[in-house]
# Entry
Amino acid sequence: MIKARAWKVRAMYMLIATALAISLIITAAPAQQVSADPGLTEWSKVSTPSEEGWVLAPDSVIVDYAVAEDGDMAYAIVYSYDTSQFYLLRSTDYAATWENIMDALEEEADGDINWLVRVASDAEDADFVAVALEMTDLSVRVFISDDGGATFENAGEVEDGGVYFPDGYDVSDLEVSPQVDGGRNIAISGRDNYGDAALFRCTVAGDSATAWQDATDYDGWDDEGYFDSYLVTDIIFSPSWGTDSTILAAAVAGDGPYDVYLQSGSWGTSEGWNEWSILGIEAVPIIEDVDIPMWLTDLDAGALAGITLPEDYNGRYSNKRYAWVWVNWYSDDVNPVPVGTIFRVKDDNVNTVGPMGQVEDGEVWLTNISYKGTIAEGEAIAGVLGTGTYDPVHGSPDELLTECCEGVQVYRNDNIYNMDICCVPWFDACKPPTGTFAMAVSYVGEDKAYAVSLWGFFSPYDEDAWSVSFDDGDTWNQLSLVDTKIDYLSDVAVSPDCNKTMLVSVNEESGCECDSVWLHAENLPEAEEYSGKWLRTWCGELENDWGLLRLAPEETDGETVYLVDRGSDNMYWNEMETLICWEQGTATVDEIVDLAVKDKETIYALDINGTVAMSDDYALGWHEPEDSEVEEGYTIAVWGDHILIGGCDGEASYSDDGGETFTLLEDTPTIDGYVTVAFDSYFDQNDTIYAATDNDDYTGGIYRWVIDESDLWENLGAESYAYTGLMLDNADGNPMTSADTGGVLYASYVGGDTTGVARCLTPAEDVCCSGTDWDYLTKGLTSELFKMTPQALKICGCLAEDTNSRLFAIDSSDYYDMESGIIGTVWSFEDCYAKTAPTLASPADGATIRAHPRRCINKAFTLEWDQHGDARAYDIQIARDADFTEGVLNIIGYEPRLKKNKAASYVVAKGTLSCGVTYYWRVRSVKDETGQVIHSWWSEPRSFRVAH
# Structure
């Protein structure tokens, strides 16, 4: 098992540095090359998944939903067990976030609402939405809005001539037709107060509705009494509604065993069903004399039998009357084999699609089917009811619940011709949408579909969610309404170009105990509509409640991602920024504590026992492990064939042959400390490595070692804090650094009553390493703790001269605040000064300064330089040599009076300098407008001469 860390539990408060001292002996800086303009420099919270916008919806259930045809607008009815309330939600950003629009609905209903039953919208104009409610008197009413839910109007109780719904549980479906000539139809179905099939209709112009009509009173219903419908399970308006005015209804008849019929109606200038409709055909018997799981009626009767149509269906033409009807049923009491069967209806003829064309040969129960395309050619996605398997006679509905974290399988078929799938197999999703019971699916674009987990009220935190697929249903990721628990974030990873942020969240013991990986991209090329939004891209259970993320270093866009189940031998990887299906491998070490990625296919895993295993085929091609010579492993870093190992007892080792052999280095001065290791940005030129250490008493240091030169670790003079992460910036993107200076070094720390990141611009310089070379980046922090090891600190950016480095660290000081993401979240800091320097303005290089006419001293004169971003304090040096080893004047933390668009300035007093001497001067910024002490590089020096 992993050695436990004993972190002190106490509040952490920031100690802000108020003074700084500058050494007179500083080597000349590299030639000045100013890149990005410095900006406001302080820590700020990164937006992470939370209940804001209903990204997280803990302990909730999605009751019903409706979407626009392209998916941009959506509605959802959600019940929260936490608040014991129903919510009507609207999304205008492709179901990524939601807003609660209950206020307008409650205002129109005078608060007399028992529960929200169904929601439907006009798919072509989703600003029109209808909501069916059960009122406190148990009556069912429909409220409508034509402004996206900003206001509602009461369309009245659904009742006609003493026929009505006894309560909301007897409502099976609610549908809205497209608008034609300024009017719409609303249909609502189920079972009436007489125990017969119910189907009511009203028409709407704007937000004004007519009285409800009992549409089963129209001529031809039930073939003029040939059979008696018991329940209408599903209704659908024709996609050609504007020309054919056709509505279809799936109805269950009988009292057990049952029959299922497809009834066709005309709701145009004259109303009628079946032979009395424009279709002029009898009701089509789909299946007869079978047992049907009628208990599903209390959840969604559409799961008993439902309808889907091609986009060119038209009730006026017999050759355009193609439909699918699916039925969930089982054979008999003696041999109950549950089947979910799809039937193809062509005009008034019906045939079973299959058996090969059935989903899993018909041995699963279906939630619904979404069809995209025409009669001639199309594709479909089928949503399944939980596990899809259930013994209706001897079993319990709990059998339908899927295993936690596995999700509910959906199936796709993209090779359909003439609505016939007799010999065309279905394929299951490689990454199913999450949930445990019923999964409903809806196409909303060319390759895009939604999956909505319904009726998930069997347990809290059962991972119900609204999911999206960009590849016709093969891979699904969660967008919002995720019923999960986040106890803490265990790791963060950021693509080198800073575009993508990924998180691991841990659910220790609530509900399904599912852990998660999340993705946020400022620009998501696979789906631009989700740029700037969070998606959950992995759901599973980590053995030790601790996941690590590692990226391939050569990919600036973060495409290849590794997920480590820390403390186990489990590895996962994904080759498209976590969006596609994850692959899983098993390492040849038992308890991985850290992972280093050499390139996207080559990885090194460090075990708690100090052994290292390499895989050269992602996480599949594992070699036998080698002993790193470190007794207890903690961190690992890789650079080509060079590998560094940090231990738990001040130990470190090194390999230059790809991990075949290791050499134990001298212990760090922090004996018994946890060692985090890193290569210098210019390691291929200067052979320099670093170690940051900490003890459980919050002490440690930062040290340097030069391969083949050093005998001891050299202390770089940082404060004695517990250093939890170590990163260096990108050499190619920072022209101010070199092999002599080393890359800019950052180390996260926790110590005493402070936390933050230590920063040194020149960690590899021979004359560095005094306390004055360090900045401690703390501004904006309060009581956070950056201690989520290993590698608590992450870095991105600095890929080009005009981009800055950004730091990321997780606040692990307390629990994760799911409500608003304030506590336990990710913090970020942009270093605006690590690759910039002030620009000197006056005097000009080589200028002559006037001397006193009688004394050999200078007259007063002014040094001027351009204001450096938001800097408010500067260091100024004047020396007799260009290397500034012969210091004459050293001004520390000077704060000039700054005016907009004016140069900063300092007056050199009369008599400060001797006449007839050439001097050199330079300036660097030392403090930002926020009060953060942070050094820039020294400006390129200029010279001047004091006249004789």
